[in-house]
Every structure is written in structure tokens, then in C-alpha cells.
Design brief:
The structure is a homodimer. Chain A is of the alpha/beta class. Chain A folds into 2 domains: about 5-160, MoaB/Mog-like domain (Molybdenum Cofactor Biosythetic Enzyme, Chain A); about 170-245, 2-Layer Sandwich (Alpha-Beta Plaits). Chain A has helices spanning about 10-15, 25-35, 50-60, 80-85, 95-105, 110-115, 150-160, 180-195, 225-240; strands spanning about 5-10, 35-45, 65-70, 90-95, 120, 125, 135-140, 140-145, 170-175, 200-205, 210-220, 245. In chain A, the strands form 3 sheets. In chain A, strands 2-1-3-8-7-6 form a 6-stranded mixed beta sheet, sandwiched between helices. Chain A has a 4-stranded antiparallel beta sheet with strand order 10-11-9-12. At the A-B interface, helix 1, helix 2, strand 2, helix 6 and helix 8 of A face helix 1, helix 2, strand 2, helix 6 and helix 8 of B. Chains A, B: Pfam families: FLAD1_M (PF24102), MoCF_biosynth (PF00994). Chains A, B: It comes from Commensalibacter papalotli (ex Servin-Garciduenas et al. 2014).
């Protein structure tokens, strides 16, 4: 069985439209390669009650939870206090992180605000990253990461090898310009029924007025079934008068 | 009081990492301009139980719900069946949409798969869009929209004027290259405490190795308070030896 995961994006800046989230996509891709099934992603505000309730609800429902955002030194960085509360433990100075931050920042600049970053929920283990000394950590099945994409990505890259991986999901995509979903739908449904162990998705695309069409994605853990279903998808596109191209439209 | 909203992105393609979602950001920006408070966004899979439960939970919690995805003619387009079930009504032929689709597609090509798109939950009202005949609709407080961004955007643009708007949220941003969150955190916290009617956010940015720093965003409904708090943010950046620039880093 594939392990399961969920993402919690913590940040008013996403909900206000200020910031386009790109963390969900990076995490989703890494999990897919590792055979870990992403069940859900939520974007929630910097609101203690919402953070605590969401973390508690989601950590009970999946194998791995990934949060991003809210672990810096400013007043709006409240994630660690909330994670500590969700786990019913104090948020206290983590001596190893304290020393790391103090060495990096310099004793004279290691003010109270920055010392807040050295507080981790009791029992948390730091997640290293190569970009900064941002204090990401894991506690229980929850991975608490930075919101800045470059730092989050470095943290995730160091987390992924420590996770239980599942059988990889194999995927094959054919697309065709000017193809219409309505024209292929009935036959596509038949292919889906014939290969129930695969998951066939149909995605219209509009790169621009001339370059539009449909991409048909076949996925699953059974390589032979994926190849066979994808080959029938190819034949279907040809039969309808389209020119199938392998891969994602770009 | 500002009306509240939530977004439900329906689509395996987002959770598998195939597709980078950009719908949340477009909807979030439109709502912010309209003074509608976005409380949450969720990305969920093409799974009937999850869709039905999520729609039922969220439509009870906010004034407006926006869904994207799953309203096309293929077997993986199950949103309308699920919305109908969430509202306890049949998903049936909507004569007006049937005629519109038939005229657009042509009687000879209006096959069974395409006729599925003319099924709307009983009581739903179509949402027009200028790009396609994709059958978006509103039922109760739920707006069901296409997943393809261009079509979703056209639908949303026709929805926004029909909503109850709230007092607009005013926002002012100062950023500075090479500024450090840890250096401004304490004074920033004082400014936040002095202007409790504003919401001050601190966002590190890394455009590239040389262009990094911090953006400080002041938001609220009280224009005078926003201006005053932002002016103190400006002074703080100057005091710390940084050169404040107005607007978002780019």
C-alpha cells in the first residue's frame, strides 16, 4: 500500500492573493515520484485556532503531513506555537538550534526575535537545509517547513529519503492539438472500464488560441496495464483524426 | 462585516503534481478587491465521497463557495453528480443549457458524452462565460466553475458583480533589499501592537542571490490607520539602514 500525505499551506499572503503558491506543486511532484499518495492540500490563514484544529484533524488522517510557512522571527510567525499546542507540548528553546542560529547570526545580533526561531515544540527534530538556518523540524508525523520556496525545497529534499516510499506510480500521456473531449469521451470511458487498475484523466489545454486541445493521462502501478491503456488511448486519438504527441503539452 | 468565501479545487492533476494550480490566486485577488474574505482553499481529489463531504462542510461555514474542475464531458468529470448529491437534488437535463450546447456543437455532434454537460443539479442557474459553452452554474451559495483557467476566469468575472461586496481592504507595501526579518521583528511587533486595526505581514523574498530582502505589508479597512502604520514601517526600515521601496518586490 502507498503511504498517504497531506499539505497545509499556512499564510494570509496566499489567501489575500498577494502570493502565488508554488509549494503545493513542488511537494506534490516529489511525493508522486516517491509513491506517496497526496490526499489533500489546504491553504489556511495565520489564525491559531484554525492552524491547531487543521493540524490535529489532518495528522490523524494521513501518514505524513507537510506544513509550510510561519516559522520566521516576526510577530506573524505563529506556526511553532500552534504545532506545540496541537501536540500538547511546550514550545521551548532547542539547545542545538539555539547554538546553530547564534553561530550563524553572531552573538551580538542574536536578539530576542531571532531567539524565537530557536524555540521548537518539545520532541521536535530539526530538518536541515542548505540555504539558511530556518528552523524546520519534524514532530510525530508532521514536517514543519519554511514558506520561502527555495528553503522549503531544500528542506523537502532532505526529508524525502527518510520517508517510507510506496510502489512508484507510472504515467504515460498523449496529447493532440484541436482534439475535443466530447469526441473522445465515450471511447475513453470504455478504455477506462477495460483497464480498471489504471486511472485515466482527460485535461483540456489552451496554450493560446491556436494551440489548444486535450491531454490524456494514464497512470497506475501496473506498468503493463499503463502501457496497454496508453496505447489504446493513442489509437483512439488516431481514429478520431488527431495526431497524438507523447508527453505533456507545452 | 465582510462576506466570507472558500475555494475547493477539484482535481487529481493538482495533487499528482501534473498541473500547477493558478486558480486559487486569481480567485483570491478578485475576492480581495471586492472586500470578500477568503477563509480557506482546499485541493481535493476526484473522489465522490470527498467532494460531497467537503462541499457540505464548507458551504455551511462561509457565505460563498467556489469550486473549479470536473464539469466536462469525460468519465472523470463527476463534479455535478456530487454537487447534486450534496444538495439532495437530482442531476438532470437543464433545457436551456441543452439547447445552448446543441446549437454550439451542432446536432450531429451532440453525442451522449456532450449531453452529460447539459445536466445540472435541479435548481442550478448557469454562469455565462465568453470563452466556451462550459456549463458553470450556481446553486445555493456554491459557484461551480471550470478548471481550465481561461474559462474559470471568464466565469468568475461574470459572478463577481452579483456578489455582496464588503468594505474594501486597503494595502500598502514597503520592501527593502538585504533587509533581515530578525533585525526588524521587535520594532515591527510594536507597530503591529500600536495599530491593532491593521494586519502587518512580513515576507522574506529571494528573487535571486543578490536580490533578496523583506517585504512588509500593512492591510486593513481603516485607510488612515493603514497609511500611518505603513509610514512607521517606512521609518523603521530607514532606521535600520535599509532603503525602502514602495510596492511588491519584482
Amino acid at each position: 500500500m502507498n503511504p498517504t500525505a497531506a499539505i497545509i499551506i499556512i499564510g494570509n499572503e496566499i489567501l489575500s492573493g498577494r502570493t502565488q503558491d508554488i509549494n503545493i506543486n513542488y511537494i506534490a511532484k516529489s511525493l508522486a515520484i516517491s509513491g506517496i499518495k497526496l490526499k489533500e492540500a489546504r491553504v489556511i490563514p495565520d489564525d491559531p485556532k484554525v492552524i491547531i484544529n487543521t493540524v490535529n484533524e489532518i495528522k490523524a488522517a494521513v501518514d505524513y503531513v507537510f506544513t509550510t510557512g510561519g516559522i520566521g522571527p516576526t510577530h506573524d510567525d505563529i506556526t511553532s506555537d500552534c504545532i506545540a499546542e496541537a501536540f500538547g507540548v511546550p514550545n521551548q528553546i532547542h539547545p542545538e538550534s539555539f547554538k546553530l542560529l547564534e553561530d550563524y547570526i553572531g552573538k551580538e545580533n542574536f536578539n530576542e526575535a531571532r531567539q524565537r526561531m530557536a524555540h521548537l515544540p518539545l520532541g521536535a527534530k530539526p530538518i536541515p537545509n542548505t540555504i539558511s538556518v530556518a528552523p524546520g523540524y519534524v514532530i510525530g508525523n508532521v514536517f514543519v517547513m519554511a514558506g520561502v520556496p527555495q528553503i522549503m525545497q531544500s528542506m523537502l529534499d532532505s526529508i524525502i529519503p527518510t520517508l517510507r516510499h510506496g510502489p512508484p506510480i507510472i504515467s504515460k500521456t498523449w496529447y493532440a492539438y484541436h482534439a475535443s473531449e466530447g469526441k473522445v469521451a465515450a471511447d475513453l470511458n470504455e478504455i477506462q472500464n477495460k483497464f480498471p487498475q489504471t486511472d485515466i484523466g482527460s485535461y483540456p489545454f489552451y496554450l493560446n488560441e491556436k494551440q489548444n486541445g486535450v491531454a490524456l493521462v494514464t497512470k497506475g502501478q501496473d506498468q503493463q496495464a499503463v502501457e496497454q491503456a496508453a496505447s489504446e488511448v493513442y489509437n483512439l486519438l488516431v481514429k478520431m483524426g488527431y495526431q497524438p504527441i507523447e508527453g505533456e503539452p507545452h
